[in-house]
Amino acid sequence: TLDGLRAQALSVLGEQLGGSDGSPRYVVGNGLSWPRTDFIVLRKSGIGVCDAEGHALPVQPHPDGTAVRVPVGSLAVMAVRECPAKDSAQPTAFKRSDDGLETPYYSVEFDSVGRITSLVDKACGREIVQPGRTLNGLYTAEDFPIYWDAFDLDGFYRDVVVQEERLESREVVADGPLFITYRSVYRIGRHSTLCQDMTFYAESRRIDFKTEVDWNERHCLLKAGFAVDVQSDALRSEIQFGHINRPRHRNTAQDRARFEVCAHKWVDVSEPGYGVALLNDCKYGHDTLDDMVSITLLRSVGGANENSDTGRHTFTYSLLPHDHGFDVAHVVREAYALNTPLTWSTAPCAGGNASALEFCSADHPNIVIETVKKAEADDAVVVRMYEAGGARVNATLQFALPVASAAECNLLERQDETVAVEGNAISFVARPFEIKTFKVYLQ
């Protein structure tokens, strides 16, 4: 069973963890079906972190402790431990000026309230911001739907829009070899405050906007807008197990009625050879009005509860320019990484040399494993995945553990059809956006 596998993995890692010196040990887990290198934040300052073999991992001071960049395999856990921190000062990978920033990926300029007025992609020398406009412009609007106060958003909210430019403070709270973070505090609306950490990375094209809002508004809407200079007549929007294209123009009455559309973890506008995605970890409303891609962050309607949504909110959205057209490897996977961060826990045991344990992986970037669970009717492990790019692909599902047999089934885990297992691997063909479900019987 999955509980047994999890317990076995943690036990093996605990027994294999080095550390006779008594140094704290941790188990780091990756819940995604591809190898990745990402951050965990340990709530300690001034520490070093090593992998199982004692190789130092990249670390940097973080406002909440120490950020560690950890490589973890597909659906895997690995062991790390604390080790002595290096004494030498860490050089920064960024060059700051009064109103600008140089990163390994971008040349950035800011206005007086912290919005991005220029973002040049160094890889291709391309300006991403439309002339005279900005990225991450915060704005509020009156939100008085005619009907169904808590459920509708009416298009005339655009008639009274206020740019939120009341910056109270702005400072750099982290700067080092891995990332740089600007923290800005704003007054927004009539009675609310917003604190936002804008983070640029040394080894990722993603720009994160981690946001905390003390929201105390009534009949008010908060959005963030990105005037990206990308020529596209469609907004690609993620839905469950795939994505769809929605028109950006307003040529027909139906188009004009779709002034706000829903998406899950990302939306994307792309030309041949270049595009920009807007990712989020919990928001769903988007629009492309005024030639700008915007995300709805908060509302404060009445309806059944006059105080709905008031209080503290924490969320993150991200801008992701990509120097190629849309693909799963560079957009969909980044959105999953934002929504499924690496997890870590303290390891209770100590012993010899440490290692990592992996469950399974898919060899094609378009295949996303969404579910690993115990079967409802027997002791099989159910692995459910889908094709995320809208293409027909040949793929192989490779297991790290011995597989006795396997069967393909439907979403109800019925109508089993035996599939061949060779070298603990299953080969299959997935049609565009097809969902595939396999029952796997481990030895």
Task: Provide the descriptors you would attach to this structure in a database record.
single chain; 443 residues; mainly beta; 6-stranded antiparallel sheet; 7% helix
Task: Report what the structure shows.
The protein is mainly β and 443 residues long. It is built from three helices and 36 strands. Strand 22 and strand 23 form a beta hairpin. About 1% of the residues have low confidence.
Count of alpha/pi helices: 3
**What does the average pLDDT come to?**
90
Query: What structural category characterises the helix and strand content?
Result: mainly beta
Q: Evaluate the radius of gyration.
A: 24 Å
Low-confidence segments, given as residue ranges, are 349-354
How many extended strands? 36
Strand order of the largest sheet: 14-15-16-17-26-23-22-19-20
Q: Tell me the major beta sheet.
A: 9 strands, antiparallel
Measured as a percent range, the helix fraction is under 10%
Strand content: over 45%
> Which descriptor suits the 3D outline?
globular
Query: Termini separation (Å)?
Result: 12 Å
